[in-house]
Amino acid sequence: MPLSEIPIKVVPASTDKPLNAPALLNEIAAMLERLVESSATESIDLKSLPLAPADYARLEEILGLGEVSAEIEAAGPTRVRETAVHGVWWVTHMNALREPTAEFIEVTYAPEILKTHPSDAAAGLATLRSRLMDAQGDQADAE
Amino acid sequence: MPSELTLGESLAARGVSRRAFLKFCASIASAMALPPSVAPAMAEAMAKAKRPSVIYLSFQECTGCLESLTRAHQASLETLIFDLVSLEYQHTIMAPSGEAAERSLHQAIEENRGKYVLIVDGAIPLGDPGYGTVAGQSFADIMTETAKGAAAILAVGTCASFGGLPKADPNPTGAVPVSHIVKDKPIVNIPGCPPIAVVMTSVVAHFLTFGKLPDLDHLNRPKAFFGDTIHDRCYRRPFYDQGKFAKTFDDAGARQGWCLYELGCKGPVTYNACATVKWNGGVSFPIESGHGCIGCSEPDFWDRGSFYQPLPMSLWTNRGKTLAAAAAAGAAIGAGAAIASRMRQRKLVEEK
Fold this sequence. Notes:
The complex is a heterodimer.
Chain A: H1 21-38, E1 42-45, H2 53-63, E2 69-73, E3 77-82, E4 88-94, E5 100-107, H3 118-142
Antiparallel strand pairs in A: 1-5, 2-3, 3-4, 4-5
Helix pairs in contact in A: 1-2
Chain B: H1 7-13, H2 18-31, H3 38-48, E1 53-58, H4 64-70, H5 81-84, E2 86-89, H6 98-111, E3 116-121, E4 124-125, E5 133-134, E6 137-138, H7 139-148, E7 150-156, H8 157-162, H9 164-167, E8 175-176, H10 178-181, E9 187-190, H11 197-210, H12 223-226, H13 230-233, H14 237-241, H15 252-255, H16 313-317, H17 325-351
Parallel strand pairs in B: 1-2, 1-3, 3-7, 7-9
Antiparallel strand pairs in B: 4-8, 5-6
Helix pairs in contact in B: 2-3, 2-11, 3-11
């Protein structure tokens, strides 16, 4: 049959069944394999993909919830959860009205946003030393 | 006066933490379809950058573009643009006025010559210099003079990008876009009536991270946001493909969210990011709210006929010689729907 005679059938999109989740989960598995073998960290931007509600449901079903759940308050809340699959994290950034602004699956030992930056640690050291000096001064005054 | 602090230091001084900034970069990277892994590197690069000086000029405009940028109802990531840059001059939101304001403009131009980013909204009237003046100087002269020392120009909104409403027929003031006057500087057009705020923020962020403007299309629009038509990314596309069209704004099809092609949607010929980035923090966009796209980011959209007449078939065939089979089928469906809709509308007018 020549190419021009192949009939065209338009299949309407169905939102009842997951469309992209199975492929995405396989991609996550491949990323996790790379993390294990070479410590390579990678992320998937969920908002850039055409995911139906059924896709999200399938991702949550297969990945599950793990031991770690953190909420960061920085220009609105950010929710960081390790899934039941160690090394696979679900990060949801929200604005001050708790509206999602970005959502990622991160395959890593720990998401960047959880870690303290070295310069912030240095600033923290200066802050702590200052507070200790103030506390010592207050104690000396009290005595 | 340009800030000597780096961007990271400026943000820290304003109480914007490194984590908040990383979150901002992640959202911008997502909006620009950059790999998510670039966000930490983006944050590092931008934190070390010096804030560029920005001069913002407003000409024949309605202030809608500035409202889009500033009227976020919360301290959103989009409004962080004002933390990324040192805004030297802007009519609506700057503190000084009168001669003090004009002195600050000239001082900013001299101190940052060759390095400042010039943002422009509004068209420029050439019909008579008196149609638009500030401190006795015509818009055209201000544009020409200020552009000389700019490193790059962002033409924000359809008026600055393509002439917009002032240029619409009969164009009584001789309005022209920025690109008609400035020929020797890199110009990025960020059209839209108004444009989506995060597009502008992303262009600035890209400039700070990579030291260059993002890839532009043939109309100098950032490809990351203007590479697809609304139709290509519309969530109602499956209904178009199935030939399910709303016939009126309140019929059963409209209530079920069917395609708005027959009600005049210009999505197939409009390049913008409304269908993906959306508006008001991603809440919705015109089609999702039940009204067809009016094509506000395209040149001369005011003069392209009614917002409520469906697109003619001729515009489809201009999209390219090769159409995928599905697109051809879609075009045929669209053409049939367009003819039916025009006949129906003509009949309604005749009956009146």
